Amino acid sequence: MSTPPTGAETLDWKFFQVFGSTNQEEVADVDIVSAIEFDATGDYFAAGDRGGRVVVFERSNQQTARGKRSVEYKYFFEFQSHEPEFDYLKSTEIEEKINKIRWLKPVCNSMMVLTTNDKTIKLWKVHKKNVKSVSAFNTAKAGKVTSLSVPQVSVRDSVMHATPRRVFSNAHAYHINSISLNSDGETFISADDLRVNLWNTGISTHSFNIVDLKPPNMEELTEVITAAEFHPQHCHLFAYSSSKGVVKLADMRRNALCDSQAKVFEDPDTGGKSFFSEIISSISDVKFSRDGKYMVTRDYLNVKVWDVAMEGRPVKVLPLHDHLRPKLCDLYENDSIFDKFEVALSYDANFVVSGSYSNQFTIFDLASKTSTKLETTQRPAARFTRRREDDIEFSKKILHAAFHPNENLVAIGARSTIFLFNA
Fold first, then answer.
1. Other residues' Cβ atoms within 10 Å of the Cβ of residue 134
2. Which contiguous run of DSSP H or E holds residue 331?
3. Dihedral of CA 340/373/294/105: which sign?
4. What is the model's pLDDT at position 353?
5. Which end of the chain is least crowded, N or C, by CB within 10 Å?
6. So what's the pLDDT on residue 139?
7. pLDDT tens digits, residue range 222-281?
C-alpha cells in the first residue's frame, strides 16, 4: 500500500507573527477573516474578510543587524474587492464576504488575483501607479513673459493600485464555495452547491458547465457540491467533493459533463448510521499534494489522506473532533455542526493543518505519525491548553489556514486576526 512520503524528524512548531486586533471580543463582523492564500513564491499572502476587503502582506527584504535577511511579513496594500448587492429577481441580499482568493502568475510586474463572493468572481490587477506632477510653468515677471519654457511632467511618487480586469458573473444560481486555477494558467473552475463551471481567465462573457447535479425535481435532491479543486499537474483532471462524504475525480477529456463518469473516493468506515451521519461526513474542503498523488479532505470530525490511485479507502484517517461525538445534539442545536473547516497541505506533503474550536488547530506530521496541537495566541510559545468538554468555546473557531508554498510556515485565520507559525 502506498503511503505519503517520509521526511525528517518531527519539527517544533512555534508562534512567529501576528496581524490584526488583539481584542477579539469587540471585533466587528465585517473584519472577520474569511479567506487566506499565499502566492506561488511565498513572498506575498492575501487575506479576505467579510467586509469584501482584500489585504496583501509582503515579505520583508530588509537586512538585520547581523547581516541576515529578515523573514517577517509586513502590511503591503489593501483594496475593496466586493460590495454588498441586492438580487431584485430573488429579493435577496448578496453579501460582500470574500469566499476564496487565488493568485495567478504575475503579468508585467503586476500581481494578478482572483477573488469571489457568493455570486461574482473578479480578476484584479495589483500594480504600482505613478503619481505625476507638472513643473516649470511659464510665469510672468512684472507683467511680462521674458522667455517661454516647456512645462515638465515628472513622477512625484508611486502608489499601489488595484484595477478590476475581468468580472465573471451571472453563472451561478447558488453560493460559490470554490474557485481553483488550472495548471495550464489559462482556465479556472468555480463551484456552487449544484454546478461546476469552467472559465477562461481572458473571457468573462460565458463559461462551460462541466458538472450539474441539479435534478429535474428539486425534491429529489440528495447531495450538494461542497468544494472543487484542479489537479496540480494534469489540466484535464479535477476533484469535487459532496455533502455525502464522497470525492469524485473527473476527467474533462471523457465527457462534456463530468458528473456521470468519475473515480469515486468514499470511506466505507463511516461509523454507522444515525441522524447526524450525513452532516458529519459532509466534506468541507479538498486539496491535492503538489505532485498530485494524494488528496486530503476535511469533514467535521476528521482529516483524511487519500491515494489518488486507490479509491477503496483513505490511507490515513486523522481524528480531530472525536471528543465531540457525544455532543452532536448540542452542536446541531447551536449550528456548530455545520461549520466548514478548511484543510491545507505543506509543500512537501509531510504536514497537514486544520482547525478546531477554542482558537485551537492541529498540525499532523504524516511522516512520523504525530500531531501538534496549538493555540492562536500572542504568547511566544503557543501550545495547546487541555480543556474540559464543557469549556469548549464554539464561537472561537479556526476555519481558515494556508501553508507557505516552499517553507514550513502556516497562516491561521482566527476571527479578525492572522497568526503565522513556523518550524
1. 10
2. helix 328-333
3. positive
4. 97
5. N
6. 63
7. 999 999 999 999 999 999 999 999 999 999 998 888 877 789 999 988 766 777 888 999
Q: End-to-end CA distance of the chain: give it in Å, rounded.
A: 30
Residue 3, pLDDT above cutoff 60: no
Reduce the DSSP state of residue 389 to 3 states and report it.
helix
**What would the mean pLDDT of 186-206 be, rounded to a whole number?**
96
Closest-CA residue to 106 (of 31, 157, 32, 56): 56
Beta partners for residue 118, in sequence order: none
d(CA 292, CA 234): 8
User: How many of the other CB atoms lie within 10 Å of CB of 145?
Assistant: 10
Q: Which amino acid appears at position 144 of this protein?
A: K
Maximum separation of any 2 CA atoms in the chain, in Å: 97
Q: How confident is the model at residue 151, as a pLDDT?
A: 74
Global pTM?
Answer: 0.87
Residues 120 and 143: their CA atoms lie apart, in Å, by 60
Cell digits for 34? 474569511
Joined grid coordinates for residue 218: 428539486
Q: For the chain, what is the radius of gyration of the CA atoms? A: 24
DSSP strand E in 20-91: where? 33-38, 44-49, 53-59, 73-80, 85-87
CA distances in angstroms from 127 to 38, 49, 113, 155, 226, listed in the order given: 17, 21, 11, 16, 33
Ordered domains of the chain (ranges, CATH): 14-132+154-320 (2.130.10.10)
C-alpha span between 38 and 14 (Å, rounded): 19
